[in-house]
Write the structure tokens for this entry.
Amino acid sequence: MGAERYVPAGADLDELRTAAASCQGCDLHENATQTVFGAGPADARVVIVGEVPGDQEDREGEPFVGPAGRLLDRALAEAGIDRSLVYVTNAVKHFKFVPAERGKRRIHKTPSRTEVVACRPWLDAELDRVGPELVVALGATAAKSLLGQDFRVTKQRGSVLPMPDREERVVATVHPSAVLRANDREAAYQGLLADLTVAAKEMGQRTTRR
Ligand code: URA
Ligand code: SF4
């Protein structure tokens, strides 16, 4: 189990993407349409990590192209983070879902700890190649993958934190899908925006320090 043996050594991002297309590091590849690898410039300054591709991402093969992605794009713009400086990916790269009735949208399932751990070598390889200044974790799955199992987004969101075993720093926030599901959508959106603004400020400081 695990993606490790599918990750080619010394590969660039395009070669990684190609290799990930045939990953069988966990069972999720069996029912999903395709691997949804990260997307964005190889020299991005920020890597944004989501949870797992959704229904639309699974069909199109691109991360964050559905409703959650549109909300994320809006929040990034409002926080002043230039989308062209961002590489977007997911903690787990195959869609996990409960089969829906014919013609209906398939319902996303949260990946298990085992699946998150199995897929982590792809995320590490992406971070190694892109070499961002900052990582933004969207939601508990991404945050736990990067910051450890005990991490609690509700308590520890919105501050710049060191990552265990890696050099990049991380800001964790809620997942845009959680904003879309929230009872008070506007409050949830403002929370996401506040955390992304922390990330934007951190990057701003890094620009001035150079
Ligand atoms: N939610 C995610 O976590 N990732 C996507 O790519 C789309 C929705
Ligand atoms: Fe490989 Fe990750 Fe897909 Fe599992 S989810 S098969 S580890 S790419």
Notes: The first strand starts at residue 46 and ends at 50. The first helix runs from residue 13 to 20.
